[in-house]
Structures are given as C-alpha cells and as structure tokens.
Amino acid sequence: MSDPVDPDSSASPEASGSPEASANHEIETPESSDFVAVAATTFTTVFLAELGDKTQLAALLLSAESGRPGVVFAGAALALICSSLAGVLLGRWLAAVLPAQRLERISGVLMVSLGLWLGGQATFGLLQPVLDLSTP
Amino acid sequence: MQLPLLASTFLTVFVAELGDKTQLTIVTISGTSNNTLAVFLGSAGALVLASLLGALAGGSLSTVIPADALQLAASLGFLVIGLRLILRSGTDAP
To answer: Any chain A CB within 8 A of the CB of B19?
Structure first.
C-alpha cells in the first residue's frame, strides 16, 4: 500500500534519460545569456578587427561606385557570410578532432600572437607622425 | 548584366578573406565555444555591418575613424581572449 518510493530509482531515469533534451530546454534560461554573451563577444572582436582593416574593401567598393554599389555590397556581404560560415565550420571540425585543452592552448597562443602583431602595427602607425616630426 | 559583377565581387572578397586574421579569429572562437550559432551570427553580422559602413563611407572611412586606434582596440581584445584561453587550458590540465 504505502510503497516507499526509492529516490534513486525514480530520479535516475530523469537524470540519465536525456541530458541533450534538458540542455535544449535551457535555451531560454541560462543558455540564452551565454548565447548573447558569445554572440556579443564575437561581434565586437570581429567588428573592431574588420573595421580597422576595411581599406581594401572600401577601395573595392569605391572602384565600383561608378557602376552599381548595391550589387557590389551584396556580393561582398554574401562572401563575408560564407567566409565566416567556413571559419565556424572549420572551428567545429578542429574541436571534434583535437582534444579541447590542446585546442584552447593553440588558439590562445594564436590569439595572443595576433594581438601582439596587430597592436605593434597599430602602435607603430599611431607613432609614425611623432617619429617623423622628431627626425628633421 | 548584374550577375557577373555580383560573382566577381563575391569571389574577390571571399578569396581575400580566406586565411585572414578575421577568419582565424572566427575559427578560434568557434572551436573553443559550444555555441556555434551564436558565433556564426555574431561574426556574420559584424562583417556585414563593417562592410556596409565601408560602402556608405566609401574611401573616407579611414579619415573619419583612425584605423590604427581601431586596430589597437582589436588587438587588446585578441590579447584578452588569448590569455583567457591559455589560462583555461592550464586549469583544465589534471
């Protein structure tokens, strides 16, 4: 009559049943802030890096300004979306092939190297007028 | 008439972007994050907006915003993300 419910047996099907399903359900709660954070971080980094590097693309768009800038922009935007898709897929493939810890280390070293290189170039560019003035 | 221009722009920009530091960044963030869709939406949105700004401002964008200052800000972002990844890979180790 009063069968005591075994907490373990009742809990285990729920717990081990579907970790993927529970992860999918959480899209609205903690995962959504993670989603926004990841998207915002990616957006800011790529946007800043790309905006400073827009000289070639601006020149390309300017060169086609006599013709049809709308078509040129559409082509450029499509290409950028495809290249970022290729980058994302390559990243997923690397994550599947390499152990996470090693990929994190390689990525970290790559990012720091890129940061130092970019920062060095930018600092040099900013200091260029000052250097020119100091050497008569 | 418009298709050749569209195709040539697409190919030019696509080839120019392959292996670019921007794409390396995307590969890095995507490989070390579980949120593939968020990375894709963030990077594609940033690239399209940046190229739209470039198209609207034409060649004068670099005179309005100093490119070197933007690059310096971006390099700081790279350093922060890179150092965080290195630290994380260190704490993951058994």
So the answer is: no
Chain B nearest-CA residue for A44: B46
Q: How large is the ipTM? A: 0.79
Average pLDDT, integer, range A64-84? 79
The type of residue at A15 is A
Comparing CA positions, the residue from A101, A91, A115, A28 lying closest to residue B43 is A91
pTM of the shown model: 0.70
Judged by a CB distance cut-off of 8 A, whether residue B12 touches chain A is yes
- Token reading at A86: 């290729």
Write out the DSSP string of A53-119.
TTHHHHHHHHHTTTS-HHHHHHHHHHHHHHHHHHHHHHHHHHHHHS-HHHHHHHHHHHHHHHHHHHH
CA distance B19 to A83: 9
- Evaluate if residue A9 carries a pLDDT over 60: no
Q: List all residues 6 or more positions away from B16 whose beta carbon is below 8 Å from its beta carbon.
A: A56, A57
Res. B8: pLDDT tops 70: yes
**pLDDT(B37) > 50:** yes
Of A90, A100, A118, the CB nearest to B78: A118
CB B40 within 8 A of CB A85: yes
Domain boundaries, chain A: 99-136
